User: Fold these one by one.
Assistant:
Number 1:
Amino acid sequence: MRTTPVAYPTLEQYNNAFSAHRTLLADTELRSGDLAISGLGLPLAISGGFALTYTISTHGRKFAVRCFHRESKGLERRYAAISKKLASLRSPYFLDFQFLPQGIRVDGSAYPIVKMAWASGITLGEFLEDNLRNSLALGRLADALAQLATYLEREGIAHGDLQSGNLMVSRDGSTVQLIDYDGMFVDEIKDLGSAELGHVNFQHPQRKSVNPFDATLDRFSLIALTLAIRALQADSSLWDKTNSEADAIIFRANDFLDPANSSAFALVAKNPNLASHVKNFAAVCKSPMARAPGLADFLAGRNIPAVSVVIQPAQVGSNLATTSARPGYIGAYAVLSATDYAACFKAVGDKVEVIGRIVEVKHDKTRRGGKPYIFINFGPWKGNIFKVSIWPDGMAHVKSKPDESWVGKWVSVVGLMEPPFSSQKFGYSHLSVSVGTAGTMTPITEQEARWRLAGAGKAAGNFTAATSSNQQTLDRIKGISGSVSAISSSSASTSAPATSSNTQVLQKIRAASASSLPASSPSPSSAGRSTYHRSNSAGRSSTPSQPPSSTGRYTYQPPQQRPGIIARLFKWLLD
């Protein structure tokens, strides 16, 4: 087994390899299958933890193919032990999978993959959105989680990242299945330590600092999920009152840190049937993670930590969207502004949360097949912008279809930041997150948006975005580029806040140094990164209102050897 650290491929490299999956995958069954692709013709990738997941269908079966793009200690040994344990259990809670150490060749080298059977049902987050007012279904789901908790405790194992996206639920809510086993605990690998920290909105506040690795890892998550579901069963309006979404069910990481002053805790505690559970949950949050009881004990009021937490009552008409003096937002992923192209560009290949105000909603149909799609732009499309793409395959997963009435609204979108799509003809470069099976989008208030953006770039994970102000950026650029010296002191002394986008800075640079720039500058995506260009059969680049046809193809373009000044400035900003 491999013991030395591995530098895993990037998203772009994996996309290139999966574009030739019939040649580069080692597994015969996967090679013969059809790969799911995005609306731009790229392999459809879903990001989670330190792995990317691709979908392949073959002979009536569907597989999730997980590829690793971040190092995990003892990866091969970890998966060998997990596979051995799950095979011995033969439990319906887990899916069949194979760990293939030489699963795919990328740029001439072999890398591991996990071939996993496709789970049935829908994610727990989707189930809740569909069944908010179905009390019986929510009750069945809560019971199913109680049964899962009993099973995990009995077998002495833990999933390690129990959250709304890793729990698949049957249509009636009576059964659940677990997916994504990267962080699982089984006794044979207890010496390896934890491989991940789990989703912050479902984890104890000490998970990151203590980082335990034992059979009790899932206790807190199961308590949080079960209490949230029981609360919704009693009062479905709590979903809106707590700004819930697929990745945050009633409670968030902020609430776990300070349950006494949490509006979510206060709102749930107003229900007399749940008040004692809320008080006990607050005690669990404020106690060491190791003191968390099993779900059965929690529901019975046993083994609750002896910590007294006085929950401040919710104000009349209290709603998290209007609550003042809130603590800083803790995002599960890096939080980026939709107007900050540079930060979004740096996050290509990462799962992120992007927040912005909609400028344009474009409905159209594909050239071939006439299938509907939607583009949601956060800037003028003839420029370097971030946008949200809802392709035909994702339309069914969007509950409320955006239209012109959405212009001016604020939204949060969570998903994989895809490689840039550039048009030489129109001179734009678009970064995007595809919504549907690969991402989720939630309308939020402007106040909520500004609260989340106040900590833009910060997240529970390892990603850290640049947070320097426009003034600092301009000062640094002046020191390396004489052509920028024409910028006046008045324009350099911008009154924009520190979170303004670097794109605005570069627009000023272009305006000040236009006479010294070539007529056509390379796209920012060529600065230190490869980019994909899509051409149709006539050799023309596709426009936003005319997405690529099924007969087109992507060609891989290496970075230009002699980038222009703007490309060099982008490279300097992002490296």
Number 2:
Amino acid sequence: MVRHQLVVQEFKEAKSIGVDTVPVLVGPVSYLLLSKPAKGVKKSFSLLSLIDKILPIYKEVVAELKAAGANWIQFDEPTLVMDLDSQRLHEFTHAYSELESSLFGLNILVETYFADLPSETYKTVTALKGVTAIGFDLVRGSKTLDLIRGGFPLEKYLFAGVIDGRNIWANNLAASLNTLQALEGIVGKDKLVVSTSCSLLHTAVDMVNENKLDKELKSWLAFAAQKLLEVNALAKAVSGQKDEAFFSANEAAQASRKSSPRVTNKAVQKAASALKGSDHRRAMNVRNRLEAQQKKLTLPILPTTTIGSFPQTLELRKLRREYKANKMSEEEYVNAIKEEISKIVKLQEELDIDVLVHGEPERNDMVEYFGEQLSGFAFTLNGWVQSYGSRCVKPPIIYGDVSRPKAMTVFWSTLAQSLTKRPMKGMLTGPVTILNWSFVRNDQPRLETSYQIALAIKDEVEDLERAGISIIQIDEAALREGLPLRKSEQAFYLNWAVHSFRITNCRVQDTTQIHTHMCYSNFNDIIHSIMDMDADVVTIENSRSDEKLLSVFHEGMKYGAGIGPGVYDIHSPRIPSTHEISDRINKMLGVLESRILWVNPDCGLKTRKYSEVKPALTNMVAAAKLIRAQLAISE
């Protein structure tokens, strides 16, 4: 109730200063389909059974917006691009039929995005009652054009999303104009609206202050402000008022990007192309590898470790800022980071953690740090986008073929290893996560770019191994994040994504232990793909899931790899007790064999304070030792 009142309030506020906006609401069916049942509710409960209970609230907010002077209201129904059965499709028909009388006198836009619509869904959405207009993503949903060609209701507006709302590349205006002119022939000029493919929330805001990007590269880009100019230019062109100078500049930029030598590296392309002839698996199976690794590492049962990062203090961030601003010498910076790593290693030894990390004090972001050292990447000063909640990130821009000019992490990892006799993990970000958390070039398939990044990470893995690092963690936090919405497209993605990971470590010795980490996600439907990654140890979020993931990873016993389900939630300042962590470990042992179980937090400790980290890790290690003692007694 509070949220819908806020929508009305925001509309009124904009109108009071002379701005006539289109209020945007999550559509009623998508609202339910994207919701989760409350804790304790039976799995068999259908959220869609609540549709008739929430429709009166939608009628109320529509009435308030209408009374406030709204002419258009947008209902986002993103779930329309998913695989929906006839029952779920019927709920869309039912919901908008029930709302029809409330919508009378208003223009209603139902917006879809991120994929093509299935043909049956297209028939349903184009027949919705009370709906004035339908929006389609014609960038990621290019096949939808064929459905539109097969017929579109003449009485409705078509919002053609030809400007990419999820990436930062300048639109090919000539190609988009051809598409729009074809659509104009189907729906008529008066019913065609030029639009972005989705909300511009996913792009950076404006290029006006990007002073460090060179002129050529900037000409290839369009942030949100520039995309609005593209929408306007295309709309005018469709109406016969084409801005020839604007179109010419765009054509020149497109040609520049296509022919620029900075984009293409023939050697990289050849190496990436050659990868398709093999599946790049390690020769020995994982059970035998773990035995060989244990002989070398001699770890205790239930080995303890952390995921990688340690707290990024204000002093540490200030240090990196001053170094980037040339306010200190490289020698001063390196010495300061060495001192920080030394403190982190000493702390872990005092806590008696079994497998250590160097804490990553030299890193700003797990993707940006690597992108800064790889060719084919560019970086913005102010290209922030919302990640989740209030957290924002500044994604790198992958504009060309990717390669690794020199080692990226070997210096810091070997320095850390020299400070201890315990195993030190080399910490890397995996190719698929770098891909999914960057603005990726759109002039070649994503898998080609992923393979190029994989080759660069492979070079780093092999250099770490040669430098004496016996455990290497290659994080694939965003593996599932790139999973297509349509089931028919998921197997293809998972095949090349998993292959990319295997490429990174296929040549290491059997005694080198490869870890990977995956963040908060639902792994049930991709467990076999995770197993196919062939990592020696997989660490995952678990504490927020109340051990629900353990039943899924029970299948990991058949696979034989080590598994580290997080024993406490690092996104909370709350410090778990030894008893609480022990209880979690015992629950894990009810599903997983002790020989494959690792004890670790849910994720990296970057966002936490040392006052939270020290006692939490103290309790974690104490819990692992307690359970080890209990297991020894029971044997």
Number 3:
Amino acid sequence: MGQENTQRFGDFALAEPLQRAVAEIGYEQPSPIQAQSIPPLLAGKDVIGLAQTGTGKTAAFALPLLSRVDCSQRFPQILVLAPTRELAIQVAEAMQSYAKYLPGFHVLPIYGGQSMGLQLKQLARGVQVVVGTPGRIQDHLRRRTLQLDRLQAVVLDEADEMLRMGFIDAVEDILQHTPEERQVALFSATMPEAIHRIARTYLREPVEIKIKSATKTVSAIRQRYWQVSGTHKLDALTRILEVEDSNAWIIFVRTKTATVELAERLEARGYACGALNGDMSQALREQTVERLKSGTLDIVIATDVAARGLDVERITHVINYDIPNDTEAYVHRIGRTGRAGRKGEAILFVAPRERYLLKAIERATGQSIEAMHLPSLADVADRRVAQFKEQLLAVIEGEDLAPFESLIAQYQEEHDIGLGEIAAALAFLVQKDKPLLPAPETRPSAALDTAVPSARPRRERRDSDGEGKRQRPQARRESSAAEGEPNMRMYRLDVGEEHGAQVKNIVGAIANESGLPSRLIRKVQIAHDHSMVELPADLHDSVMEHLKKTRVCGRPLQIRPLSSGDAGRESYPRRPAVRRKTTTEPAEKERRVARPSTRKRERRT
């Protein structure tokens, strides 16, 4: 454990489709639990992994076990037991993303409180991987609707948590229904006696792996988080960059591609920044670091691998733009600031569904991370004005202004204009590229002004007698038009289901690249080789050109508007085993994971 890990995912003998998915996701270097678990699991050995939540356990067992799945066989080959429905869903989604290039692959999360009928239908259709809670797995075993006699592997994820929740007897019962020669991987944060007994009973000569928890973070670093909406991350970041008292920044993202993309977007907004990733030559990386040290760069966008060992005194702020899956990575990231007794600031962007990672980081570091309020537009304006005043004072105190005083006096005499008006004109010339007060049309979505978006108020109208009544649909439409609701039209995108596109990918890309609020991105429809989306009809030509080049799942969108006749003629061939989602809600997420529906069946009348 003392030696530095220099392995890459490409060093493992993973199946080619999995290597392709890992490369596309942007994983560069395995975490300690992944580096030590993947080789023995690939070799078919049983494994005991002692590691905290948030250390990358899912990839540690999913990648090697999926490498041996036979997608031509439609029966359960891998069973993952998880203590909660949330973890079961999370693991199933991760496995689906890793297996995106395995044709015919299906994973099914099974948990209590959901429709048994739909689960039965999905099992009858055939799945290769089942991820479930012990209680619901037992229900299916009793009904004989889940056959485990041909399992290749069983994973016990967070075994100590299953013990704490009273599932340990159910876990043993399930293990007794599995073939004797199956492989077992047991992961747990601790090893109480009951878990140790299961390991002795059901695992064969297991490889034991122990990952030390993250060390305590430096007390000089102030840690904060903002609960973020993915479509607003860039606007949130720029507000923070404007308002925070800072010197230099390092912003961490998950993938190499993201370093370049984010650097380009920030440069377009006037920031001096550069990318730092593993694909860059050593000479170019060293040049970027030197520019950061010298002050010609203020911001570096980096991956974990590229930033290893980075020590630049100027760095006052670390932003985790993408939350790390590994708590050790978080500690190493924020350690880029607050060094040698200096103060430092660490800010973490956390999507609502990533809060479990926030909790894991807090447990591993032994420190709570405080919630932060996003700076308002008024804060941004105040900061710009304060900086402008500081610049004026610095010039007045440090420069010889006598020649300019003579020039202004001469100009005032020639044109009979007051000094205040001349000063205002000069201030305008200096600040015209970055107005002191953000213009209304360039302001980010108002949803950013609150940490948690508030519910949209119900519109009411007043009759002549003063009584408030709910508006009829027609009245609401007229009201929306009167309030400036834009005309909408359908657009076609050259990315579809066969490319791996999901609603969240399309909404996120369009919102980030166009600046449109997500409420104006509607009716996303995913077809086999293309998609359609409803957007404002009057998109500016520059926005259209930019969106054409914007990539989703590695393909340029090539967006183009459709006439009403074209939109009606677009075909969406249906395949019997696939149900496509059409949503009018931008935030709705389309998953290819076969997840049971939460909706109750409507009663027949």
